[in-house]
Amino acid sequence: MEIALQVVHALLALGLIVAVLFQPGGEAGLPGAITGGAQSLFGKKKGLEEKLAKLTSIVAILFMVSTVVLAFIVGR
C-alpha cells in the first residue's frame, strides 16, 4: 500500500508541476499588479484559464492530502 501511495504522490507532483507551468504568465511591475488586482476583483478569467486554475487547485489539494497521509503511514 505504501508503494502505491508513493506512486500516486509522484504522479500528483508531476501533475502539479505541469499544471503550474501551463498557467499563463502575468505582467511584471506595477501595471501588472494593478490589472491583476482588477481582473481578480471583476472576474476577468475566461475559458481555459479558469479551468486550468481550478485544475491546479484540485491537484494541489490532492497533493497536500497525499503528503499528509504518506507522512502518517511512513511515520508508523
Walk me through this protein's architecture.
- The protein has 76 residues and is an all-alpha fold.
- The chain has one domain.
- 83% of the residues lie in helices and 0% in strands.
- Helix 1 packs antiparallel against helix 3.
Assembly status: single chain
Number of helical regions: 3
Please state roughly what percent of the residues sit in beta strands, choosing from under 5%, 5-15%, 15-25%, 25-35%, 35-45% or over 45%. Answer: under 5%
Overall average pLDDT = 84
- The number of domains: 1
List the helices and strands and how they pair.
Elements lengths: L1 H20 L7 H14 L4 H29 L1
Helix pairs in contact: 1-3
Features:
single chain, about 80 residues, mainly alpha, 3 helices
Q: What's the short story on this structure?
A:
The chain is an all-alpha fold and 76 residues long. It has helices spanning 2-21, 29-42, 47-75. The chain has one domain.
